[in-house]
Prior knowledge:
By secondary structure, the protein is of the alpha+beta class. It has helices at 2-28, 32-82, 102-116, 144-150, 159-168, and strands spanning 85-89, 124-127, 133-140, 182-190. Helix content is 57%, strand content 13%. It is globular.
Amino acid sequence: MFAIISARPLLTLFAMLLACGALAQTESSSDPATEGPKVITEAFGKLSAALSEAVAKDGPAGALTVCSEKAPQIAKEVAAAHGVTLRRATNKPRNPNNAVDAFENAVLKTFAAALEKNEAPKPQILPLPDGGKSFFAPIILGNPLCLQCHGDREKDITPETLAAIQKLYPADKATGFQLGDLRGLWRVTFPAVQ
Length: 194
Ligand code: HEC
């Protein structure tokens, strides 16, 4: 008897927590069309700042490790703050974890087809089997800084940087790019709204 009475406020509290959880969930899975670009702008800004700072301080070879450790960390932090998951994917990966899956590859191909026609590739929002949605946006190599680590192996990348890349990423496929090339895509995944 006593146990039942004292359990009631607890149950009420539990129900309130559930309600708050549901609210937070709704908020974090808000419209991918507006939230997707925001998440990417924030991650890209932080990544670019960390990259420029590291290259200025240590040169491209020294900045490599900063980049390999910081890029995934920044993506995780920004994603957690928005209640989404975030990744960069490509068909020419430096880090094998960033290789496109079949679904991402299909989107990447539509971006490449648009560029071939001299059109700007348009971001896409696609539904997932679990009820979530993914927002995709192209990553175009648009800054000469990128070439120091992703450009021509003889022209753009110093032997020192190339050696450092090959040591960290023996299976690297992410060189030989030119300004304006499609480097990959950003993918922001929004969980299913409960
Ligand atoms: C200092 C060298 C350096 C510079 C400069 C650099 N990157 Fe990278 N990039 C890397 C490294 C190292 C990785 C692998 C990161 C990892 O392990 O997740 C990478 C990974 C990537 C990826 C993820 C896919 C993959 O291949 O693993 C993309 C996309 C990318 N870079 C685009 C760019 C763009 C665009 C620029 C210019 C704004 C740029 N990078 C400048 C070193 C660099």
